[in-house]
Amino acid sequence: MKKITFLVSIMLMLFTFQTIAEAASISTRVRILEGKVYKQSKLIKQQARQNRSNSQELKNGLKDIEQLKLEVKNFMSEQEAATQKKQKTSKDKRYSFP
Question: Residue 94 carries which DSSP code?
Answer without folding.
Answer: T
